[in-house]
Structures are given as C-alpha cells and as structure tokens.
Specification:
With about 100 residues, the protein is of the alpha+beta class. The chain has four helices and five strands, in the order αββββααβα. It has a five-stranded mixed beta sheet. This is SCP2 sterol-binding domain-containing protein.
C-alpha cells in the first residue's frame, strides 16, 4: 500500500510548472486517516508542507486511498466527489486545476 508521503512525493515529481504560471494558491489536503498537508503553488513553483495552512484557497478532504487513487488515475476525482469520497471547502473550482498541475502520466 502506498503511503501518503509517497503519493505527495509523486505529486511533486509530476508537477507541471507551466500550468502554475500566474497562480498563487494553497491547496490543503486533509487526509481523514492521516495527517494534513498543504501545497503552495506560486508562480510556477510547488512546495508541499506538513500541517495545515492558516489560509488555504481550497481544502480537499479525503482518505489516503482516495488520494492515491486520484493521483494514479485509478479513481476519477469528479466521481470521487460525487460519491462523497472527496469533499471540498473554499474555492472548489480550484480543485479542477489539480489535473493540470499534477498530470497523471
């Protein structure tokens, strides 16, 4: 089983800086069966930090299995959202940019 740390490392490796041009946002990942992390995407850079952000742009709430499934392409993010396996708070439309920022190979 893949750990959240491995999934986050994979995200960092897949990061597409061109898709992040002009962005200044914080994605918070609240892993129900794990910890909370936030991802700062700013001007073509990506930084993943342990712990919650004081002011996330959007918070995504899911379990580790859902996160891993979305990042490997085994789970469609929109289907996970519709099924209640993924919840979002804040600027929900930002969540749709994740597939551009972290493309599945």
């Amino acid at each position: 089983m893949t750990t959240v740390a491995n999934t986050l490392q994979d995200m960092k490796e897949k990061f597409n800086p061109e898709a992040a041009a002009g962005l200044d946002v914080i994605f918070q990942l609240d892993i129900e069966d794990g910890d909370t992390y936030h991802i700062i995407v700013k001007e073509g850079t990506c930084e993943i930090i342990d712990g919650p952000s004081d002011d996330p742009s959007v918070t995504l709430i899911m379990n580790a299995e859902t996160l891993d499934g979305i990042m490997t392409g085994e789970v469609d993010g929109m289907q996970a959202f519709m099924a209640g396996n993924l919840r979002a708070e804040g600027d929900v439309m930002l969540a749709t940019k994740l597939s551009e920022l972290f493309p599945i190979s």
